[in-house]
Amino acid sequence: MQLEDCYFLGTITKAHGYKGELNVHLDTDEPDAYKNLESIFIEKNGLLVPFFLKKAKLHKGNHLRIIIEDFEDPETLIGRSIYLPLETLPPLDEGQFYYHEVKNYSMLTEEGVVVGEIVNVRDTTAQDLFEVNSPDGKEILIPVIDEFIVSVDHNKKTITVSLPDGLLDIF
């Protein structure tokens, strides 16, 4: 399994108890979708290594407690990232998208003006941001706000936005 075929699910943060349980912080809005995980991929030395789970139980919001089958030293996995295959993502409603899907989409205004190409979605800041390269090579940061997004066309690979007056002038 290659990293580009997977999505980041969370990070192993610490051991719990003495029976091999690990605490995973899930990076998701829907932690309930992962309470019955049977297997995961853990990034180790740049590779994704599959592990089967003996147990996966939700704990306090976005935390999952897991026990990995037949693994002698689970504490060596603390701090590692967990991934799942992209095909395991639940389907979305019309007009919704996963951040990884819109990479390389064109962003247009309602008037059809090209804002640029989405090269990334930054989700490590207080406000998630579309990182857009404008046609003249400038980096533009557009907040990911439902009110700004008019439509998403997965077939044409476009996102149409309605931006506040003057937002693009900042860049």
UniProtKB/TrEMBL annotation:
<dbReference type="Pfam" id="PF24986">
    <property type="entry name" value="PRC_RimM"/>
</dbReference>
<dbReference type="GO" id="GO:0005737">
    <property type="term" value="C:cytoplasm"/>
</dbReference>
<keyword id="KW-0690">Ribosome biogenesis</keyword>
<comment type="subunit">
    <text>Binds ribosomal protein uS19.</text>
</comment>
<dbReference type="InterPro" id="IPR011961">
    <property type="entry name" value="RimM"/>
</dbReference>
<keyword id="KW-0698">rRNA processing</keyword>
<dbReference type="InterPro" id="IPR011033">
    <property type="entry name" value="PRC_barrel-like_sf"/>
</dbReference>
<dbReference type="InterPro" id="IPR036976">
    <property type="entry name" value="RimM_N_sf"/>
</dbReference>
<dbReference type="GO" id="GO:0043022">
    <property type="term" value="F:ribosome binding"/>
</dbReference>
<comment type="similarity">
    <text>Belongs to the RimM family.</text>
</comment>
<dbReference type="GO" id="GO:0042274">
    <property type="term" value="P:ribosomal small subunit biogenesis"/>
</dbReference>
<dbReference type="InterPro" id="IPR009000">
    <property type="entry name" value="Transl_B-barrel_sf"/>
</dbReference>
<dbReference type="GO" id="GO:0006364">
    <property type="term" value="P:rRNA processing"/>
</dbReference>
<protein>
    <recommendedName>
        <fullName>Ribosome maturation factor RimM</fullName>
    </recommendedName>
</protein>
<dbReference type="Pfam" id="PF01782">
    <property type="entry name" value="RimM"/>
</dbReference>
<keyword id="KW-0143">Chaperone</keyword>
<feature type="domain" description="Ribosome maturation factor RimM PRC barrel">
    <location>
        <begin position="100"/>
        <end position="167"/>
    </location>
</feature>
<comment type="function">
    <text>An accessory protein needed during the final step in the assembly of 30S ribosomal subunit, possibly for assembly of the head region. Essential for efficient processing of 16S rRNA. May be needed both before and after RbfA during the maturation of 16S rRNA. It has affinity for free ribosomal 30S subunits but not for 70S ribosomes.</text>
</comment>
<keyword id="KW-0963">Cytoplasm</keyword>
<dbReference type="InterPro" id="IPR002676">
    <property type="entry name" value="RimM_N"/>
</dbReference>
<feature type="domain" description="RimM N-terminal">
    <location>
        <begin position="9"/>
        <end position="75"/>
    </location>
</feature>
<dbReference type="InterPro" id="IPR056792">
    <property type="entry name" value="PRC_RimM"/>
</dbReference>
<dbReference type="GO" id="GO:0005840">
    <property type="term" value="C:ribosome"/>
</dbReference>
